[in-house]
Write a structure and sequence with these properties.
This protein is an alpha/beta fold. The chain is 37% helix and 14% strand. The protein has helices at residues 15-24, 36-43, 83-92, 110-123, 172-179, 188-204, 208-222; strands at residues 7-11, 29-33, 52-55, 97-102, 137-141, 146-151.
Length: 224
């Protein structure tokens, strides 16, 4: 079935992850920006409508030394946790699907450590007898507007599968599919199975490229 192209805004300052968005979200109408200022400008344009906004957690305010909040203009180009207010602004502008996709974890500073609190929050939510035992994907708000947080630093497939870990990029497509209900939540049970499979493949398959093929196949069969 052919999917209707969506209008998607991606706010991401890392070139590697921008390239991943262009590749994985091809077929959609993409605007990709690298700063908070650029994203806010596009969202504030009444001539534009976005079906989806995907943003990094940490972005620079601008590409040049200009920062209107206080008298430290050089800080404008330093990444800060503006993904939170950007997501709130997108929701306020009526964007129906908003997702924060981050590789940050608690080792990356105080604001990044708040990502742990999202996981802890969901560990206390009860859904029948099973609870919400998700990992890496957290639906913070669901309804006519949806707000998601995706932690690509956790053991969930929100990074692309390639031979070298340092070359893995954000899996924007997987995040989008979960947001749109085309793929289910990734669970802690899935994560445990994925880790066990990675250990098994490490000694069963010597060639790194062959391991990549096997891992992709395993994830496709596990996570539908």
């Amino acid at each position: 079935m052919t999917q209707t192209p969506l209008n998607i805004l991606v706010a991401e300052d890392t070139i590697q992850h921008q390239d991943s968005a262009r590749e994985l979200l091809s077929g959609h109408n993409l605007d990709i920006v690298g700063t908070y200022k650029e994203a806010i400008k596009l969202l504030g344009d009444n001539e534009r409508f976005y079906n989806v906004v995907l943003t990094d957690l940490f972005l620079p305010w601008s590409q040049t030394p200009e920062y209107p909040i206080h008298n430290k203009p050089d800080e404008a180009t330093e990444p800060r946790a503006v993904g939170y207010p950007l997501a709130m602004f997108a929701l306020g502008r009526g964007v129906p699907n908003v997702g924060i996709v981050s590789m940050a974890n608690h080792h990356d500073g105080a604001m990044a450590a708040t990502t742990d609190d999202l996981g802890n929050y969901f560990s206390h939510i009860s859904d029948g007898d099973n609870g919400i035992d998700c990992i890496g994907n957290y639906p913070l708000m669901q309804g006519s507007q949806n707000l998601w947080f995706f932690n690509a630093a956790e053991n969930a497939p929100y990074l692309t599968i390639v031979a070298s870990y340092k070359n893995r990029s954000k899996n924007w497509k997987a995040a989008l599919e979960v947001m749109l209900g085309q793929r289910r939540l990734f669970t802690r049970e899935d994560s445990n199975k994925l880790m066990q499979n990675e250990m098994d493949l490490s000694w069963k398959i010597e060639n790194p490229e062959d391991r990549v093929v096997a891992e992709k196949k395993f994830i496709d069969e596990l996570w539908r």
